[in-house]
Specification:
55% of the residues lie in helices and 13% in strands. The strands form four sheets. It has a seven-stranded mixed β-sheet with strand order 10-22-21-20-11-18-19, with helices on both faces. Strands 2-1-3-9-4-7 form a six-stranded antiparallel β-sheet, with no helix packed on it. The protein is of the alpha+beta class. Helix 4 packs across helix 10 and helix 24 packs antiparallel against helix 27.
């Protein structure tokens, strides 16, 4: 038997652990900004203490020394900027510092020096984009290969492998170079390359790419490329190149200084020219001190960083947050990003004479001994439905094919059907359903006879639809899925989420090309979780890694890491980034506008330097206080739930899991009504459905109506927010009542009448559809509110 290949999921096979290679060293922090900050702060504090002790001359000396100390590095920064062809905000600061020294306004100079040092320190942290550490990628790279020469197998460095060499790849080892399978078929985990962890079978003659992990037995590989020309080495190079090509962050302050700087100098020069007084020119420069630029933007951005960190969002630097606030395009991987990254049982089909619950229990009995990710999903689903696996003996498993065991004296297997196996009609219908649903199938056979099918799929995250809506509200205009998965499940998820585009079956190189193309049109965010996503994350303006269960490589290549396994945290971070950037711009522009008014007053002689310095400090305090608003919680971003409401959400979310067998029973009963000659079984199935509806489903719906919805109404804005869900409850109750009426009629007649079949079948299928839609809407709109 062969375990069916799922569309989105299976295990990540263990790989060999080669010796870690060298990784690029991240750029170290500059020592100059912290030293400047320490000196200017110390001089300002010391001067203040001396002034309080009535030692004015000593205080002036301290402030003058602090000002002079700030002039030197500031001049160096200006010269370096001029050599690069542009003059930044620091030039205004240098002119203002020199002016305060010239006219003896040492306190103003010390304050300007402190503002400059603080702004530079904050901006240094915001500008330094984290180096794209490739240690995880390199750690996965095999250092040796086992080369077969005749009957001898010897380990050799991968760099010595030549095209045409015959290699042996053992179980759990990483494929060292690209090649073709020779001898027995290979079962591979290609998740590193595609993001899809489904083991794939490569038959003799088929191509295998380096970086894949051998998830089956040992196989022979004929090398078709050297190490440097192989796939995995290309992924590492892509990540390095993409990181090197990342555009440096343009300082927000410098963008505004482009016009504020020449204007300030022009006003000062004009005041000097018209009045003949250098003091007026200095007064203009003092009030033109760009503290609103030096501090307002960094304070707002750093405040935003503080807010995001409280939500489990790690933003590497202020530049990343500022770029996120300007982003207009969002690219997302599918598996592990829009989906949970773990398969779940979505349907169980039983052969005539078998019940779905018994199929699931038997499958779990055999699979409980398997490390396969699909096996874990089957066992978890059985236990969630109260179906405890029994004991199995003589259990074995063949990688990529299935698990075998003896249960109750009968040989039972879970996995793929043998190619020569006779597929009954019910099984063909199950196969068709799996294709339509984009699901994987694990077949249950007893004594080689198929008796059931368990369908598994990586489901959409409950928080994904709400997160994407909020991202659009925050300013994202274009959302596209980039995935290595097949087009069918990718298009289905894209349709459900209303994405603007979907590209499937992409290699890591394809993803990087797509990111670069989107970057040419707008500031672009890329979200992913696998090693194969690392190059694309590094190539984007903002790379976001799902770090809770994602790979280390993706986290290290990203600018933002979501440490909680919730994609809606990206929406939170984007809202914070947009708000922080808006406040930064408001603060900077507001401060500059006030400074312009003060410059005009100083130019006509209404503000002497000393008074101008005090006024400028008042402006600085005002804009900094405004920038600190970014620390406050935006009440419109996420509803605040009471603990009791959160507990109810968790309770009813768990009940949804428990009620999956009820939904399955409704669908199976409807299907049995179409089985000619199965009237007795059909009626029994409908009776069972009626019991499940009465004893389990309807009480659940009633409790939601009278407990959950009232608790959510204050948060969601009133009863109108839950009105459509209440209407669905009414429809569910109506259809359940109709099923009960049909059961009563059948009991009175002793059998289901022919005239009942069409209406009863419509009721059951309709009920199943309404329940699935209703559950999905509740999970998306209500359950996603609670972590």
């Amino acid at each position: 038997m062969i375990r069916a290949k799922p569309s989105d999921d299976t295990r990540r096979a263990g790989s060999q652990k080669p010796a870690p290679g060298p990784a690029p060293e991240p750029a170290g922090p500059s020592w100059l900004e912290p030293v400047l900050l320490a000196v200017t702060a110390s001089s300002l504090i010391a001067g203040g203490v001396l002034r309080l002790l009535d030692h004015s001359d000593a205080a002036d000396l301290c402030w003058a020394l602090g000002t002079a100390f700030a002039v030197v590095p500031a001049t160096g920064w200006v010269v370096a900027a001029l050599r690069r062809g542009h003059a930044g905000v620091d030039l205004v600061a240098v002119l203002a510092l020199g002016g305060t020294l010239a006219v003896g306004e040492y306190l103003a100079g010390a304050l300007i020096g402190l503002m400059l040092a603080t702004g530079r320190t904050l901006e240094a942290a915001a500008q330094r984009r984290a180096s794209h550490d490739l240690r995880a990628l390199l750690a996965h790279t095999p250092r040796t290969a086992r080369r077969r020469t005749g009957t001898e197998v010897r380990p050799v460095p991968v760099s010595e492998v030549a095209v045409g060499d015959l290699l042996v790849v053992g179980a759990g080892e990483v494929v060292p170079v690209d090649g073709q399978v020779t001898g027995p078929a290979a079962v591979l985990d290609e998740s590193v390359l595609t993001g899809e962890s489904a083991p794939v079978e490569r038959k003799p003659g088929q191509t295998v790419r380096s970086g894949a992990v051998n998830a089956g037995g040992a196989f022979d590989l004929r090398a078709t490329a050297t190490e440097q020309d192989s796939t995995y080495a290309g992924i590492v190079r892509l990540a390095r190149q993409a990181g090197a090509e990342a555009a440096p962050v343009v300082r927000l302050a410098d963008r505004y200084a482009a016009w504020f700087l020449p204007l300030s100098v022009a006003v000062a020069g004009l005041a000097w020219l018209l009045s003949g007084s250098a003091v007026r020119a200095v007064a203009v420069l003092v009030v033109a001190t760009p503290c609103p630029l030096l501090l307002a933007a960094p304070v707002a951005i750093v405040s935003g960083l503080s807010r995001t960190s409280r939500l489990g969002v790690v933003v590497r630097d202020g530049g990343a947050l500022e770029r996120l606030g300007r982003a207009r395009t969002l690219l997302l991987d599918k598996t592990g990003t829009l989906t949970g990254g773990r398969p779940r049982v979505v349907d169980v089909t039983a052969a005539p004479g078998w019940k779905p619950a018994e199929v699931l229990r038997l499958a779990a009995t055999v699979d409980q001994y398997s490390p396969h990710v699909l096996a874990h999903a089957i066992v978890d689903a059985a236990r969630e439905r109260g179906l405890e696996p029994s004991m199995a003996t003589d259990v074995s498993e063949e990688a990529g094919r299935g698990a075998y065991g003896v249960v109750g004296g009968r040989r039972t297997a879970v996995g793929r059907l043998e190619p020569a196996a006779v597929v009954p009609e019910w099984a063909r219908a199950a196969e068709n359903r799996a294709v339509l649903d984009g699901a994987a199938v694990a077949w249950l056979t007893v004594e080689s006879v198929p008796v059931g099918a368990v369908m598994l799929r990586d489901p959409l995250r409950h928080d994904a639809p709400r997160a994407l809506r909020r991202l659009r509200t925050a300013g994202i205009e274009r959302i596209v899925m980039l995935t290595g998965d097949r087009p069918e499940p990718a298009r289905e998820i894209a349709a459900v989420l209303g994405l603007d585009g979907v590209r499937a079956e992409l290699t890591p190189a394809d993803k990087v090309a797509a990111v670069r193309a989107e970057r040419g049109r707008a500031v672009t965010v890329m979200v992913g979780d696998g090693v194969n996503d690392a190059p694309a994350l590094a190539a984007a303006d903002v790379g976001v890694a799902m770090g809770a269960h994602g790979s280390t490589a993706s986290s290290e290549a990203a600018d933002i890491v979501l440490t909680t396994d919730r994609v809606d945290r990206l929406a939170d971070a984007t809202s914070i980034a947009v708000r922080s950037r808006r406040i930064a711009v408001q603060s900077a522009l507001g401060g500059m506008l006030l400074s312009l008014v003060a410059m005009g007053a100083a130019a006509v002689g209404l503000l002497p330097p000393a008074v101008g310095a005090l006024l400028q400090e008042g402006i600085d305090v005002a804009v900094i206080l405004n920038a600190l608003r970014a620390l406050r919680v935006d009440q419109g971003a996420r509803p605040a739930l009471e603990p009791a409401a959160k507990a109810l959400i968790h309770r009813f979310a768990a009940e949804h899991e428990d009620l999956q067998d009820v939904l399955q029973a409704v669908r199976d009963a409807a299907a049995r009504l179409s089985d000619p000659g199965g009237d007795g079984q059909a009626l029994e199935s409908v009776r069972e459905v009626n019991r499940l509806l009465t004893e389990r489903l309807l009480p659940h719906e009633s409790a939601e109506e009278h407990q959950l919805y009232p608790a959510l109404e204050p948060v969601l804005g009133g009863p109108e927010a839950t009105a459509t869900m209440s209407r669905a409850h009414a429809e569910i109750e109506r259809l359940a009542g109709r099923v009960a009426a049909h059961v009563s009629l059948a009991d009175a007649q002793g059998a289901l009448g022919p005239e009942q079949l069409e209406d009863l079948r419509a009721c059951l299928y309709g009920l199943h559809t309404v329940l699935r839609l209703h559950f999905t809407q509740e999970e998306e709109n209500f359950f996603s509110l609670a972590p």
